[in-house]
Structures
1.
Amino acid sequence: MTQRHWGALLAAACAVGGPLGCGSGDDANSEADAAGTDTETDVGADGGGDGGDTDTGDDRITLVVAAADWSGTGGGVYAVDPETYEVTDLGVATGTDAVVRCQGENAFVLDRYFPTPPDATENRLVHLAGPDLAVQGELALGLYANLHGAVMYGTHVYVTAFGSGMLDRVDTTTEPYGLAETIDLTAFAAGKDDDGNPDPGPVAIAGDRLFVGLGHEKEYKATPFATIAVYDPVNGSLVDMDDGLNGVQGIEVEGTHIFDNALVVRGARLLFNASGDSSWAGGYDDGAIDAVDLASGQDLGPLVTETEASGNIFSWTFVADDRLWAVVNRPDTGDGASDALVDIDLAADPPSVTVVHEAAADSLWHLAATPGGDKVFLADRTADAETLRVFDTASRSPITEIELPAPANSQCFVGQAI
């Protein structure tokens, strides 16, 4: 782990204003000045790797859900009131695989394979904002882009293209939205990816730095690399994290590749899912949720390992400083593989894990917590179910089930009510 430039990163984060990177321990991923909003929000790559925390209070939030039927009939985007559980169709039809990322009062729908196979011609970004979460603009970014992460800085949205190894900068001031720049990340594949693509996935922002998690993935199998590329949106350039080596270097951290569903700035830490092999490749005990200290650049080691969680950690969200909830894929121990929603107490040593809900393998998907951490919303795709399960985190008990027009694929909170 190199420590070059970490002092500058921290200074930049503190200079924006607010607690980010200044050791407060508060959640802060995107800053108001950078995003053009009045809220602070954790931005996970899937909207489920973090709490979606805002400073607005639970009375001014909305859950945005991308729902999609993978069988080929497509899906849509919906708003859910976290108190009344009323569902509102936002009028955005999607293809068979769409996800949503939230930041402040913005929701970014990454619509993959639009309109639907076999007629799909595009991956597209759809930007929702305003009191009715109306479409502000959209842009097609290519059929094979395989969009994964999105974050806004100023008037531009930065979108990772897992399929092409690029970071796309989208200008939101034009009508229609325009592709202002394609930032090539393929140099990070050197010596690590045979196909020349480092597989950019989750993206997060701290101060005036963008952090991009690189998967270095090969057919769902882990590689012995975990890299975070750093980009300076002010100067429009990648940041070299180690001038002792040739070329622009990223942050090399311990562990296996960074999974594509979370890269989170939480207080003075950068958290990520170094997941190892996916459950589809038999990886149930070779990964962890890991952390890097933004002030020192030191790898803080795992918050919780997959061995401690008793399965492959898929999606996760904080409900308190020392508690997170996660979906884990568990191996076949005689009765078949299974999924579980678990409550992990990080204050215990080793972390203690309590099973909250169980389901068949590959049934439980992404989850999101309210800003106060009192409720968790879980996407349950059991036998193509069209259900969001809601849990009370204090009692670990179910509250209700919300029926949607299509199975939930991804969800996150925006800092406003509609």
Note: The domain at 6-414 is CATH 2.130.10.10 (Methylamine Dehydrogenase; Chain H).
2.
Amino acid sequence: MVLWKNFLIALLVAGAFLFLASGARKGAAAKATWAPKETGLLQIPELLDHWNETLAFAIFGLAFLGTAWLIGRTDWGLDVVWNGDTWSRVSTTIEAALAFEVREPGESWKANLIYGCVFGLPFGVPAFLMEGKWTAARAFWAVVGTGFLLWMVQSAAENHSRTLRLSDAGLVERSCFGSRRIPWEEIGSLEFHDVREQLLRLKDFRSRISPSFPHIDIWSVKDRKGQEVLRIIAGMEPAEDFRNMREQILRRIPSR
């Protein structure tokens, strides 16, 4: 996974420089249109066309660079452990007796794909199917739509493979992108939150939330300093194992 991650970053950076180089060439061509022709008039339509393409290529180049930077900051392909301040890479995996294991419900990754298709495809796909030269507005919506779709696909893959394990070594979250472990000595609290109820407490959201807005229940794992380390949706399956997992965590942390 780490090799593929580095390869993807290299491809994105190379693509970004290709787009930026193309944009620079379009910019040079745009400057050339300022030279008056035989009529002595500036070629304003050509000038606008060239600068529109320049901005479009710049948007694509910056989007590629931004994506490469975001991927570089992830811990994809790594096994990391929480050390009280940040996630640190570990070279070996600790083997411990497994007490409980739960998985993300199927509704999570299906919802990701639905959101990606509903909100990403209508903005991203039409921009690539349009005829004519690229404009800044067209490139912007192509980046927004395609970016959101790819983000939802990545989230769907992560949620589909996500499991949560409790053992003598602590709490471990695993997915196709890697694993994260919170040792027992770093777990400070386990708190329940109703996201819908929290939004209703905010004046800006109270009048905008429909009565049919679903309840979004989550469990927040915090470290000894009160910093949220892991967020778990309340619908983890099997439900009985998840309940037993929460009870065991709560039994081991009250004395702190």
Note: The CA atoms of residues 73 and 123 lie 27 Å apart.
